[in-house]
Amino acid sequence: MSHPPIDQQITFLYTKDLATSAQFYEDKLGKRVVALTKEAAGFTASVVLGT
User: Fold this and answer.
1) Which range marks the domain in which residue 33 is found?
2) pLDDT of 1-24, one tens digit each?
3) Is residue 29 part of a domain?
4) Can you tell me the distance from the alpha carbon of 32 to that of 41, in angstroms, rounded to the nearest whole number?
5) Where are the beta strands (DSSP E) in 1-51?
6) Could you give the CA distance from residue 41 to residue 23 in angstroms, rounded to a whole number?
7) Whole-number mean pLDDT of the chain?
8) Could you write out the DSSP letters of every residue in 13-43?
């Protein structure tokens, strides 16, 4: 059985301190914030998988 390719993914991580976690992802992991609300933050993620 053939499956369609996966070209997007969303991952949710839970935290008690969103501001500190968002700062970590920006400063230490180099992710750019693309959306930020009181309850959630969205970041860029670029991964190219070989076929």
Assistant:
1) 13-46
2) 788 887 777 888 899 999 999 999
3) yes
4) 10
5) 33-36, 41-43
6) 10
7) 84
8) ---S-HHHHHHHHHHTT-PPEEEE-SS-EEE
Side chain identity at residue 24, one-letter code? F
Cβ atoms 30, 24 nearer than 8 A? no
Distance from C-alpha of 26 to C-alpha of 48, rounded to nearest angstrom: 20
Report the distance separating Cα 32 and Cα 26, nearest Å.
6
Beta strands 41-43 and 33-36, pairing class:
antiparallel
> What total of structural domains would you count in the chain?
1
41, 18 Cβ separation under 8 angstroms:
yes
Query: Does residue 26 lie in a domain region?
Result: yes
Beta-carbon contacts of residue 34 (< 8 Å; ≥ 6 apart): 42, 43, 44
